[in-house]
Specification:
Distance between the termini: 15 Å
Shape: globular
Number of helices: 5
Helix content: over 70%
Structural class: mainly alpha
Oligomer: single chain
Length: about 100
């Protein structure tokens, strides 16, 4: 039986994938999930105001789901849209990573 390569923790792996899509600061290992989500929310807030089309493309690539996206955009308090969207994207990205690891 082969030894499996040590896997990057799921939150860190999710953040690294977001760094490919969104301009995010570098982090150190051990950064909390809440901190990752806050950084993502800040970047999403900028895109909501300046590059909405790019944000929609990211949501599509991450496969957030049109229904969930519409619900957040239409029902969330305007002050919390970026945070709610960041949490939804974060959870979806983690789910995708866990599924890939389960079947690889």
């Amino acid at each position: 039986m082969e030894d499996k390569k040590e896997l990057t923790p799921v939150p860190q792996a999710a953040f690294e994938l977001f760094q490919k899509e969104v301009e995010l600061p570098e982090t150190v290992s051990g950064t909390s999930e809440e901190t990752y989500i806050q950084m993502l929310a800040k970047a999403i807030g900028v895109m909501l105001n300046r590059d909405f089309e790019r944000l929609l493309q990211i949501c599509y690539r991450i496969d957030l789901g049109e229904g969930k996206l519409k619900k957040i955009l239409n029902e969330s308090d305007p002050e919390w849209v970026a945070d709610d969207l960041a949490k939804a994207l974060w959870e979806r990205q983690k789910q995708k990573i866990e599924t890939r690891r389960k079947y690889s």
